[in-house]
Amino acid sequence: MLRRKKPMALVEVKDxxxxxxxxxxxxxxxxxxxxxxxxxxxxxxxxxxGKSTLARLIDGLLPLTSGTITVGGIPVDxxxxxxxxxxxxxxxQNPDNQFVGATVADDLAFGxxxxxxxxxxxxxxxxxxxxxxxxxxxxxxxxxxLSGGQKQRVALAGAMVLSPQLLILDEATSMLDPVGRQExxxxxxxxxxxxxxxxxxxxxxxxxxxxxxxxxxMDQGKVVASGQPQVILGDxxxxxxxxxxxPPVAQLKAALAMHQIQxxxxxxxxxxxQTWLRRQFNSxx
Length: 285
Ligand SMILES: Nc1ncnc2c1ncn2[C@@H]1O[C@H](COP(=O)(O)OP(=O)(O)OP(=O)(O)O)[C@@H](O)[C@H]1O
Description:
The protein is an alpha/beta fold. The chain has 2 domains: 11-243, Rossmann fold (3-Layer(aba) Sandwich), CATH 3.40.50.300; 247-285, no CATH class. Helices cover 40% and strands 19% of the residues. It has 12 helices and 10 strands. It has helices at residues 51-58, 81-87, 95-98, 104-113, 119-132, 148-160, 178-194, 206-210, 229-233, 236-242, 248-257, 270-283; strands at 11-18, 28-35, 40-45, 68-71, 74-75, 88-91, 166-170, 198-202, 214-219, 222-227. The protein has a 6-stranded mixed sheet with strand order 6-7-8-3-9-10, sandwiched between helices. Helix 4 runs parallel beside helix 6. The longest helix is centred in the middle third of the chain and has 17 residues, at 178-194. The radius of gyration is 21 Å and the shape is globular. The structure holds adenosine-5'-triphosphate. Residues 20, 22-23, 27, 45, 47-53 line the site of adenosine-5'-triphosphate.
């Protein structure tokens, strides 16, 4: 009997161990991770748990020394770096370190020149992508005329301009004020709605992790848990052991439990909590 082969995930990380050359111990140990096409995975974990190292290995910014990684079926190695960089767009933490051009248009053109695109293709793609991130009015602006959130939206346009299948966000909103953070998250949510795009977002922000399809928790170079955001983030034992903030609903549950009010475990979202509280309130009137 013919057995049908399982379709390949977009990203397959298999048995990856990595030690920086000067380090005394590995930063990643036997890491396995898959990301499906179109899936949004939030990578969480304490400082130094290995999240950025894993992202850099997936993008080929660090050389793999043990294990394998494929993106879109292409092995991440020196030979395939160009092809890998067309599959992945990456946005980093610091808005100022990412801006290399004298103007917004120059900045995007600089990134595209590395991919040897024709001038007329570039001139079509740049305004198209600036419009998608809501920055079309700023095409001739200089970096110092932009807010942090606006710079990160330009970085997003730069990461997306070659229509990659995977967007990696390495704490892309952590240096922004609440308005900038909101702007960038709204842009990412909109991109996800309109593009066939998988996302790997590294974050310490519980509200950002809640937007993902799945949360992967790392600790000391290992993946220690993976599952639905509300389940992983709402687990009080995991939150205490691995020191992360719980979502507002989980915090409210814990506070109510201290007053002997037990909220059913299946209630995880704000909407479910509101409905449940309203019912309790009405039944007592
Ligand atoms: N260039 C380097 N050389 C040596 N060790 C490094 C280097 N970069 C990171 N490390 C070490 O690797 C481990 C994992 O670091 P990494 O930056 O991947 O963690 P992280 O989870 O992204 O942390 P954070 O949330 O603080 O960004 C840490 O112990 C760190 O000190």
